[in-house]
């Protein structure tokens, strides 16, 4: 975008020599603060030009898809897995729900400072679900693994008493949302603690065995742990119970990950029982780009977010997509534009310049306003101490939010289209959970449009919002395992 001539503090500038961005930087170099507010139309045009760094061209997206596809193949390969960035972990889940699961099942969902216990009663085309959330005190989060699992076992026993199943023997599915190397359906080795946990004696050990030992120490409840899984797998299983075409599970929330159904013959690391043609793969695609393969589309804002994160150089794709980072990407852009004199008359606020102050929920709220209406945007900016923002400022803020969230949706879409094209099935439903997908007003539409453009001819897809994926999905994994043990087809 170029303009013939502009009149700004310092004189009239010929566009054959100056782009809008260069103009602003030139003016800022003459003074620490612009002598007067830049014309609103000029500011709008410069913000739009600057935000082009978030726009992914079709050529770039196709290149991203090609690189991700190669990384998936590396993750599945026996010889290349060790050095693969996208790990493609084997889940050992080979059967999806078919609607014939019956009975009562427990689920344990552990992924943060709270955990949830659920009981699900499956009948013909219906289920009854009840749950309770339990806190994990800080001294247990930083204590011993024995204390952690004893606490969980005590809560499980109390839950069973409250729901009058204390005397029954129940199967349990265990959702464990920490880095895990799975060696079987009921065996998972903790790779490292995250999210504030540092329990001793657990890293490098089988967490299922840790819970089994705690239940055995009590000796008062009968629980069979039938499977361990992560939240992405739970999302797929939860949706597959209602929709048998569901063969991809996606999380777009605080983090981002995907799992999908792969042909067993392509899973070179699988050492389970032969005979089943399909196997669920946990891609751990949040790490895509850790080797530099996404550097060609990363921005100065992405690099700053990464440098200031708790894991620099790790989870690069996740940092361009997920709710943990989206708000901060927007904030960094707003800070730059404020310092350039393009927003808020060059006058920011203490909160705006504070790292982490622009929550990702603000992005969803701002984009929920109808075009031309800035009610939510005004409320957000007031919370940030920017009550002096003009309507033009609010339009600029909204454009930044749209640019960041659209890129996130397109990156996710590129990943899903890569999986769909690799699977090459005529119709697949994608089960999705996570706060970004659930609450952002346009994410679903953006994904539908972009995936449609990227999938191979003849492939049809649907996007399905998961209902309580990680909890219900864990119980369903247990239900499927029981169905198999009973010989029910």
List the helices and strands and how they pair.
Elements: E1 5-8, E2 11-14, H1 20-30, H2 40-50, H3 58-76, E3 89-90, E4 103-110, E5 114-123, E6 126-135, H4 138-141, H5 145-162, E7 169-176, E8 180-184, E9 187-190, H6 207-218, E10 222-229, H7 231-242, E11 246-252, E12 256-263, E13 278-282, H8 300-307, H9 316-321, H10 323-339, H11 360-368, H12 375-383, H13 391-423, E14 427-433, H14 435-439, H15 443-454, E15 460-465, H16 469-485
Parallel strand pairs: 4-7, 7-10, 11-14, 14-15
Antiparallel strand pairs: 1-2, 3-13, 4-5, 5-6, 8-9, 11-12, 12-13
Question: Order of strands across the widest beta sheet?
Answer: 3-13-12-11-14-15
Query: What general form does the structure show?
Result: globular
How far the N terminus sits from the C terminus, by CA atoms, comes to: 62 Å
State the helical fraction. 40-55%
Q: Which blocks of ≥5 consecutive residues have pLDDT under 50?
A: 1-22, 24-36
β-sheet strand percentage: 15-25%
So how many helices?
16
Structural class: alpha/beta
- Sheet with most strands: 6 strands, mixed
- Give the assembly state of these chains: single chain
Average pLDDT: 89
**Secondary structure tally: strands:** 15
Give the radius of gyration: 25 Å
């Amino acid at each position: 975008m170029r303009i013939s001539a502009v009149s700004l503090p310092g004189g009239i500038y010929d566009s054959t020599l100056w782009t809008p961005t260069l103009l602003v930087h030139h003016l800022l170099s003459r003074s620490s603060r612009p002598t007067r507010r830049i014309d609103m139309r000029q500011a709008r045009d410069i913000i739009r030009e600057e935000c082009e760094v978030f726009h992914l061209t079709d050529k770039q997206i196709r290149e991203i898809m090609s690189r991700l596809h190669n990384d998936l193949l590396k993750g599945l390969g026996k010889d290349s897995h060790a050095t693969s960035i996208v790990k493609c972990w084997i889940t050992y889940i080979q059967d999806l729900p078919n609607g014939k699961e019956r009975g009562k099942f427990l689920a344990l969902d552990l992924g943060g400072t709270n955990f949830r216990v659920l009981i699900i009663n499956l009948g013909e085309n219906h289920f009854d679900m009840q749950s309770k959330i339990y806190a994990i005190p800080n001294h247990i989060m930083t204590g011993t693994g024995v204390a952690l699992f004893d606490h969980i076992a005590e809560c499980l026993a109390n839950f069973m008493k409250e729901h009058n199943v204390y005397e029954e023997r129940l199967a349990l599915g265990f959702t464990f949302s920490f880095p895990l190397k799975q060696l079987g359906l009921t065996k998972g080795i903790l790779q490292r603690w995250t999210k504030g946990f540092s329990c001793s004696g657990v890293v490098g050990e089988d967490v299922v065995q840790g819970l089994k030992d705690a239940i055995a120490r009590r000796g008062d409840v009968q629980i069979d742990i039938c499977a361990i899984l992560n939240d992405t797998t739970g999302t797929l299983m939860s949706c597959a119970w209602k929709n048998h075409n569901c063969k991809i599970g996606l999380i777009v929330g605080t983090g981002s990950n995907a799992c999908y159904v792969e042909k067993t013959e392509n899973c070179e690391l699988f050492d389970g029982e032969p005979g089943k043609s399909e196997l669920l793969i946990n891609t751990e695609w949040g790490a895509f780009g850790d080797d530099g393969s996404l550097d060609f589309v990363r921005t100065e804002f992405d690099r700053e977010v990464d440098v200031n994160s708790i894991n620099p150089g790790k989870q690069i794709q996740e940092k361009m997509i997920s709710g943990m980072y989206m708000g901060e990407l927007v904030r960094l852009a707003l800070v730059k534009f404020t310092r350039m004199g393009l927003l808020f008359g060059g006058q920011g606020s203490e909160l705006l310049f504070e790292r982490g102050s622009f929550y990702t929920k603000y992005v969803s709220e701002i984009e929920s306003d109808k075009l031309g209406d800035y009610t939510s945007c005004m409320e957000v900016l007031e919370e940030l101490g920017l009550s002096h923002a003009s309507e033009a400022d609010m339009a600029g803020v909204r454009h930044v939010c749209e640019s960041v969230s659209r890129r996130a949706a397109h990156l996710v879409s590129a990943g899903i289209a890569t999986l769909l094209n690799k699977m090459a099935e005529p119709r697949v439903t994608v089960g999705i959970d996570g706060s970004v997908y659930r609450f952002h007003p346009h994410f679903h539409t953006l994904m539908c449009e972009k995936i449609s453009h990227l999938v191979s001819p003849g492939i049809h897809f649907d996007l399905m919002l998961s209902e309580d994926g990680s909890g219900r999905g864990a119980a369903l994994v247990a239900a499927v395992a029981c169905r198999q043990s009973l010989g029910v087809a």
